[in-house]
Design goal:
Largest sheet: 5 strands, antiparallel
Shape: elongated
Radius of gyration: 30 Å
Number of helices: 27
Distance between the termini: 28 Å
């Protein structure tokens, strides 16, 4: 750190010119980045993915995409089964095929299957399989479908469109802010926190660092798109997490620089001393965040791997800017900006008092924190991974009201997620459809004979389950269909529901490996950083407990709906989208380690100075409590801005990240961490000789002796458990 600070301070002009060039290039790249990102969620190797790709190649529609569901309501006294009405319905659905390009339709008129008619005989529906674009929010074809059908329906009949795409987009997909607006919203909230923390115009410096780091991230991601496919989700994460992480790292370094100035050091010397301490913490924090994200590459899903690689860029760029550009600003323009400067002691009286209380009541504090984490962890055990229930994707939108009408007529929501069977045309598709229709959990199965359903010596069967695929009943239905189709030569089962279940298997089949790799790397990094074995093991255990508690929060708020309606106006989802827990785990694990490194670094420093672990805890928390709280609030506001995004999935992920950060900064870092360190005493700093040699950790100097027992006693009760005398 000293070498880096000397280098950048000797070459201030070159450093500034370099980052200005990066800023300009990043601004240009950010304007073009969206068009280069992929909305696709490919799953190579999965049978359902291969089936869907073949369906799309041969038929140009269906496959991964959910169909539009056109629901017709006949006037009182009319029956869908009457010949005249059936003919009118047939003409109306035929008009959809003619006027909406590239679609494939299955309905009562074309199949004669009474399963397309509700129990009131007045409600009927048709599945309109549309071309799949892979967009997160595909354009709605509802207006085109209703415009094509309405003139040809019997007098008094109405048509409305629902389906998973309509439910996800109708009334909400167009309401969210864009990436730029979300970033500005989060930036405004961050500025308010920084003004409170610094009490001067110096609050602008961390925002300036974020304004440089975010375009730099976009530039790096733009370059990454030249090498590999990058998920569209990366741009949201780069903007908002880049904002939070860049500000956090800058906040840490600027705060330490202020302390060194207050101690009487000149600007350049204060920068060097801040870099030697806070700069080292920033480096290790950035490494742990990057490793947490990079761990996603162990999953066999290209989109998640790209999120891991692209997300890793965020802490890497933030650390680079903090360690190069920020020292130049601190040595030149930052001190005049520290106006009006309100002198505050380096150690917060409130946080010091809190730390004394926690250390004095260490066992009670540990039990209370573990009780909260345990309760939320127990809630997390009920998590259901899959697709949110259809009825949770809106309440007042036209698509949601149409779904209610469909269900009121006795037609289950499972028909919105049909299973598609691709098979050779000479394999008797009609006979197989008849057999599949008799399976438990299947509402109907049809194999229309028209050219839209038979092509290039292949045929398609549409199997409509009664239950949605994320439910146990839906999964059982899919398994039964696959078992029944297996003996048929070259037959493949696809559709969005089948792909969803295969995704779950692919994503979570290696989750234990992801956790093991990440835990091992973290323990090694932190053991080398702190010269301890117990501290890294404890840090990993607490991070996992924190993430588990966060899962409990989203289960309560979203899966069970205790808060989703009050805050976002959305009902319970019934399930959590499969990729959300993984992304939340990778980000929270790394971001939570930020606070752990910040706090432990200062506790270790104060322990070495005072010669007492408990004194180090009190002084360390007193000096970092305000910093960690401010950093957590900044990240929380960034995630709150992310929750204004258009997708329900983004809202769930933002809830997980925001709640996880608050839980970690309060229950874990402000309560459980100091309590456990006080309980463990001198064992916190134990590192076996073999591990010390392997990690090349030098033997620690003997800790300083406290000036007197009375002086130590003013900080906290002595001695801590396991600490003989004052040698702690």
């Amino acid at each position: 750190m000293l070498a880096i600070s000397r280098f950048v301070l000797r070459h201030k002009g070159a450093v500034v010119v370099f980052w200005l060039a990066v800023l300009v290039a990043g601004g240009a790249a950010s304007a073009r980045l969206s068009s280069r990102l992929s909305p696709q969620f490919a799953l190579p190797g999965a049978a359902s993915y291969q089936a869907n790709q073949q369906i799309l190649r041969l038929y140009g529609n269906g496959g991964n995409g959910n169909p539009e569901v056109a629901v017709v309501r006949l006037p009182p006294g009319q029956n869908a089964a009457s010949p005249a009405t059936r003919q009118a319905l047939g003409r109306a659905f035929a008009a959809v095929t003619a006027r909406v390009g590239g679609v494939r339709v299955a309905d009562y008129a074309s199949t004669g299957d009474r399963a397309f008619v509700g129990r009131d005989s007045r409600t009927t529906y048709g599945l309109v399989f549309t071309p799949y674009t892979g967009e997160l929010s595909p354009p709605s074809l509802g207006p085109q479908i209703t415009a094509a059908m309405t003139p040809l329906l019997p007098p008094g009949a109405t048509v409305a469109v629902t389906g998973m795409n309509e439910l996800q987009s109708g009334g909400q997909a167009r309401e969210g802010f864009g990436v730029l607006a979300e970033t500005l919203l989060a930036g405004a909230a961050a500025l308010a926190v920084l003004v409170f923390v610094f009490g001067s115009a110096l609050a602008l410096v961390p925002l300036l660092m974020a304004a440089v780091a975010i375009p730099a991230c976009f530039l790096a991601i733009y370059g990454l798109t030249e090498i590999t496919t990058v998920s569209v989700i990366v741009q949201y994460l780069a903007a908002l997490i880049g904002l939070g992480v860049a500000i956090d790292y800058s906040l840490l370094l600027v705060t330490r620089w202020r302390e060194e100035l207050a101690a009487g050091h000149a600007r350049a010397e204060a920068v060097s001393r801040a870099m030697a301490t806070a700069g080292r913490s920033v480096t290790f924090s950035g490494i742990t965040v990057a490793v947490g994200l990079l761990s996603l590459i162990v999953l066999p899903v290209p989109a998640l791997r790209s999120i891991g690689i692209g997300g890793m860029i965020v802490p890497a760029v933030s650390v680079a800017a903090t360690l190069t550009l920020l020292p130049v600003l601190l040595a030149t323009v930052a001190q005049p900006m520290d106006w009006p400067h309100r002198r505050r002691p380096a150690s917060s009286r409130a946080w010091t008092g809190w730390a004394r209380l926690v250390v004095r009541r260490r066992w009670a504090a540990a039990v209370a924190a573990l009780a909260v984490l345990g309760a939320l962890g127990a809630a997390a055990l009920g998590i259901k991974i899959g697709e949110p229930a259809a009825r949770s994707l809106g309440t007042t939108t036209p698509a949601a009201q149409t779904l209610r009408a469909l269900e009121h007529a006795g037609i289950p929501a499972g028909v919105l997620d049909p299973i598609e069977i691709l098979l050779p045309a000479d394999a008797n598709p009609a006979g197989l459809a008849a057999r599949l229709a008799t399976l438990p959990g299947v509402r109907t199965a049809v194999a229309p004979a028209g050219p839209a359903w038979r092509r290039d010596r292949t045929a398609l069967i549409s199997v409509q389950p009664a239950a949605e695929p994320s439910t146990p009943a839906g999964a059982a239905t899919l398994a039964a269909v696959r078992h029944a189709v297996a003996p048929v030569r070259a037959a493949l089962a696809g559709g969005p529901g089948a792909l969803l279940l295969d995704e779950n298997h692919a994503l979570y089949g290696r989750f234990a490996l992801l956790v093991a790799v990440l835990a091992a790397v973290t323990v090694i990094l932190l053991a080398k950083a702190f010269g301890s074995l117990l501290l890294p093991v404890k840090a990993v255990a607490l991070n996992l407990a924190s993430v588990g508690a966060t899962y409990g929060v989203i289960v309560v708020i979203w899966q069970h709906g205790h808060g989703s309606h009050a805050i976002w106006g959305l009902p319970a989802t019934g399930a959590i989208t499969n990729w959300v827990p993984l992304i939340a785990f990778a980000f929270l694990y790394g971001l939570s380690m930020d606070y752990e490194v910040f706090i432990l670094t200062r506790i270790r420093e104060e322990r070495d100075r005072a010669g007492s672990t408990t004194a180090g805890v009190v002084e360390g928390i007193g000096r970092t409590g305000r910093l960690v709280t401010g950093a957590a609030l900044i990240l929380f506001f960034a995630f709150a801005a992310l929750s204004t995004g258009p997708e329900t999935d983004l809202k769930v992920m933002a809830t997980a990240l925001g709640a996880g950060i608050l839980l970690d900064a309060t229950i874990v870092r402000a309560l459980l961490v100091p309590a456990l360190i006080a309980i463990l005493g001198r064992w916190n700093w134990w590192l076996p000789p073999l591990a010390r040699r392997l990690l090349q950790v030098p033997a620690p100097p003997p800790p300083a002796q406290p000036a007197s027992r009375a002086a130590a006693g003013r900080l906290t009760a002595e001695p801590a458990h396991g600490e003989p005398g004052s040698h702690q």
